[in-house]
């Protein structure tokens, strides 16, 4: 106001209505206990008290500008997030693009289940998509058995892999559990089914890597425990399991504040697509 010599011009420079500027100045004068402007003339001139306060006012304006700049820079700082290493580059790129549209910048760190939880625990990432027991997550992905040849039936029963007494073939058909599913609520339940239907211990095995497990399945009559989308990407035929219903269940956790909720809310469907989970109101097929 003092530099423009007019309340009207000063308000216009500050991009606010003149009455609003006048009310704010009046409130500031009341708060400080002295008049800042001499209103006895047409021009807006500073009083002696106003001139004494001018240097402090300029410092406050500069600090406010610096704070706004810092806030904008902070919004651009990527959130380092641990994600399942089964997420494809294409899906992560789409998730990143959607995040940017929502004002969230992400820095992905692909890792297996246990490592994702550890990265968050030791604050090496700000957030992590973690596997949780069925019914406790935001996203659920149904699991079934995938094979190179299309099974005749619409459902695969684990008991059909049982070795008959008269079968002398050294090759036993196996079910491969990939690293992403090497968690108790999936692995242990699969092992219990194996024992209940009489399969040999080696017929259900945890693979060291998804690539090697997929290679075993592509070159044999073995099965890969996998969700439908992943099976399709690998060129395999997917069927549900007859004896059991298994799901991957995921949620996002963050180290501090409301960051996890912000990611859940803004990126729910984008993360669902990345994980191979149903989006929107689709039934996730979850449950124990």
Automatic annotation (TrEMBL):
GO terms, molecular function: DNA-binding transcription factor activity; transcription cis-regulatory region binding
PROSITE patterns in alphabetical order: HTH_LYSR
Protein name, UniProt field: DNA-binding transcriptional LysR family regulator
Gene3D superfamilies: Winged helix-like DNA-binding domain superfamily/Winged helix DNA-binding domain
Record has Transcription as a keyword: yes
Keywords assigned by UniProt, alphabetized: DNA-binding, Transcription, Transcription regulation
HTH lysR-type domain boundaries: 1-47
Organism encoding this protein: Spinactinospora alkalitolerans
Family statement drawn from the similarity comment of this UniProt entry: Belongs to the LysR transcriptional regulatory family.
Superkingdom of origin: Bacteria
KW Transport (keyword) present: no
